[in-house]
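**User:** Once you have settled down, spend some time on the protein underneath, comparing sequence with structure tokens, and judge whether sequence predicts the tokens.
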Amino acid sequence: MIIIYILLPLFIIVFGWIAYQKTIKELYTPSKNMQNVLPSILTYNIQKFPWSFKTLKTIAEMDNHSIILIQECYDELFSSLESYFPHYYICRSKMKGITIVNSGLVILSKYPIIDYKFVPYVNYNAKTLDCLTEKGFLTATMDVNGKPLTVINTHLQSCDHERYDQHAFLQLKELLKYVEKLDTYIIGGDFNIDIEDLKTRHRLQVFYPSDPTIYIDFKTSKSQSSPAKGYEGLVFDYFITGGNLRMDPVTIQSPYSDHNPVSSKIDLEF
């Protein structure tokens, strides 16, 4: 009987949380469109879990970018993105299956979003905590000065004690297969693959910062946004592009998350 009293409230909380995530609005449209917006982009794994007490105020201070890609935005229950970014189109990945949390992917844009889609990955490591979240990629096609641009946000399979998990490369293969039909696109996010490891496996048009975006102690599996003894600096956050796009990413130091955000101007040549 005691077990029932313990498990029943837990059951209600978990399924209530799942039901809440399935009601999240997929696309928010601002009442006023921005004019004469210069193209720039920011990608940031904000590490905002449901049990975190962090607000989104720090993220809102980065609203000088026309496109913002957010990963690990698992909780907006008490602090919504709409309240901090009222002039952005906001596209989210609504949970499709039954997991503890959704993908945590969000795309914000000052350009009108004319189409969007969330695609779950077929490959993932079921032996890791990543199986509790809906891994995949979120796409948004935007009207940039009268021409379409597809922007994709993703967060690949993580790994605790190694430089990467092989499932991350399998997921990347799925993503690259998807963009074969696209002419002009930007893929950004937390790839969980250091840029040097990526370059040994793929020849891609990729733009990345020179400074690390995360520091990891592979012995303890701990990670943080600043250097420390025993921590290796890696570049997990960057952009893969298709078409005549040129970028110049830089790492922005921030203690908000274990990742540092990456910012870049976008030189569009349609």
Q: What stands out?
A: The mean pLDDT is 88. The radius of gyration is 18 Å. The CA atoms of residues 19 and 164 lie 33 Å apart.
